[in-house]
Amino acid sequence: MAPASFAALLRTAHLDLGIYEDLYKHLHSHPELSNQEKETAETAAAFLARLGDYEIVRDIGGHGFAAVLRNGPGKTVLLRSDLDGLPIKEETGLPYASTVRQVNQEGEEKPVMHACGHDMHITCLLGAAEVLLALRASWSGTLVLVFQPAEERGTGAKAMIDDGLYDRVPVPDYVLGQHIMPMRAGSVGCRPGTIMAAADSFKVTLFGRGGHGSAPHRTVDPVVMASNLVVRLQNIVSREIDPNEMAVVTVGSLQAGHAENVIVDHAELGLDVRSVTPSVRDHIVGAIKRMVEAESVASGAKKKPVIVQTRHFPVTDNDKGMTESLSASFTEYFGNRFDPNTPRVNVAEDFPVLASSQGRPSVFWFFGGVEPSLWDEKVAAGKVLDEIPSNHSSLFAPALHPTMQTGIDALCIGALTFFGR
Ligand SMILES: [Zn+2]
Ligand SMILES: [Zn+2]
């Protein structure tokens, strides 16, 4: 007998989306910063606990938690959501907009917003948990759900693993994850190979010698040194990297001095690097070090500059075999709403660590959150890039429908694909 179609199977679960809509709005109006996702994790775990059957393991790597549904012999499939919000003041004007403020790890009070859609990820994963439980007669294996903290800092997945995630839940055969993106709501995109870039961030401190603004000859001016360095760094991508390779070097912050007539003694730069190929990444990192040190020497600075890496996200590389199986399933269910060759993006994720740390394959896909008529209007006007707020914008506001249903369906179909219907 041929297996039931995904559409026929999912229809039998009868999920009440209203409950999930309320949950989403609650999560959206109560965001928490990275490593402070206490209430978020408690809300999600309590929501899952009400289903029964899931074994819940709390406080892994901070506020992360995992849940296991043992459903007979077979493969172990892991589905992942992240939990954290961002230090951004929400300006969407939504009735359920966040007004939350929290003190971050540096001790500064910040406005907080779910500007990356992790609230939608949580909601979709909980919805999928209910559907897969309802459909348990149709599949066999072990389902592991991971709710990960601190994605935005690039540290949460590793923190969960370092805290014994895989001693506390079964090691998965397959690892699956998804992210909401500025695409048409209802659409889904995946691709084999690299779907997201690697990201590396650095803090650079240049030391000069401070003094009076009227006597620059008695100082080593870190403002001039930093200015030269910003321009010099532009040469890495334009002059040192093969134009066929993807590479980004952004100086995202530059701080020095407080007064017009004072030459200060140091300057700080924040650098962001994106790459896809490891050798390109290594070249960029080496070039940054070379230029920072050379600029300091060229300026006659006595004290050596300091470079500290503040973030690292690996490349998200979709396993080819897994992607092929998943794309066949998504094509069956979503039809032309699924793009099997969605463009790679240069944002980054720590999701792959959940699989690569165990030598297991993984696949990650995108689903759209932009209200379909708005999307079509902006596409027709050629204004998608200018006028559709992207993730991390203060105006980021996913349409609830059909975004939520699409995210739930995609997770269920992903899991069922690797359990075998
Ligand atoms: Zn984000
Ligand atoms: Zn995100």
Automatic annotation (TrEMBL):
InterPro entries: Amidohydrolase, Bact_exopeptidase_dim_dom, Peptidase_M20, Peptidase_M20_dimer. Pfam families: M20_dimer, Peptidase_M20. Residues 201-296 form the Peptidase M20 dimerisation domain. The keyword Zinc does not apply. One of its GO terms (molecular function) is hydrolase activity. Keywords: Hydrolase. Belongs to the peptidase M20 family. PANTHER family: METALLOPEPTIDASE, PUTATIVE (AFU_ORTHOLOGUE AFUA_6G09600)-RELATED, PEPTIDASE M20 FAMILY MEMBER. This is Metal-dependent amidase/aminoacylase/carboxypeptidase. It comes from Canariomyces notabilis.
